[in-house]
Amino acid sequence: MTRTMTLLYEVYDGLYVNLTNRCSCRCTFCLRSQGESVCGSDSLWLEREPTFEEVRDEFAKFDMSRYDEVVFCGFGEPTEAWEVLKRVAAYVKEAFGLPVRVNTNGQGSLICGRDIAPEFAGLVDAVSISLNTPNPERYAELTRSRFGEAAFPAMLDFAREVKRYVPSVTMTTVETTLTPEEEAECQRICDELGVNYRIRLWVEEGKVTK
Ligand code: SF4
């Protein structure tokens, strides 16, 4: 395993922020078990977690006019580094005026030990939450969260709460992994929560498969 300090990497028109390799889950399908990088980036395994100042200084190496958004999504769960994330998000908005998205497993409030949804206000424009499956037992099997059975309802609660503070909240599943009936159930859950539902493509090292 190659360890680097790849803090920022490009995916199409977005600049992605890799803050941490920690995660509350050990998903059976995690990209981290299938390679070291995403979309041709250098290894996203970090030598250590960066400070806010290190991430801020890294932006100077990129032409920020080329990007449509900044996305917190790396080889780990971004809310594991929540305090640094908030400072970086505030810096991105102030310095570049770009929209900020957080891709999360939705377990940030469990990770931080408090309801962090209100802390998204004014810092984050979009949140994408991995729903994975409408079935709590299946979710536990797939994600192997350290929070066990508490993870699924907490993830749903987070979606409901963060919708109050963030303009766009989307829950996702991966295409071809669920039956049409299961996808319909995901849509029903999202409708009940008042968030968007998106069936997304599977991404593997260096490319999107479809
Ligand atoms: S939540 Fe994301 S980073 Fe964490 S184990 Fe699952 S797929 Fe990997």
Uncertain runs are 205-210
Number of helices: 6
Shape: globular
CATH topology: TIM Barrel
Number of domains: 1
The SSE string, one letter per element, is EEHEHEHEHHEHEEE
Mean pLDDT: 94
Helix fraction, binned, reads: 25-40%
User: Roughly what fraction of the amino acids lie in strands?
Assistant: 15-25%
Query: Quick one: how many beta strands?
Result: 9
Sheet bearing the most strands, described? Answer: 7 strands, mixed
Instruction: Specify the CATH class.
Output: Alpha Beta
Q: Going by CATH, what is the homologous superfamily?
A: Aldolase class I
Query: What gyration radius follows from the Cα positions, in whole Å?
Result: 16 Å
Derived structural class: alpha/beta
Instruction: List all distinct small molecules, including ions and cofactors, that are bound in this structure.
Output: iron/sulfur cluster
The side-by-side strand order for the widest beta sheet comes to 1-2-3-4-5-6-7
Q: What is the first-to-last residue Cα distance? A: 27 Å
Query: From the 3D coordinates, which CATH architecture would you assign?
Result: Alpha-Beta Barrel
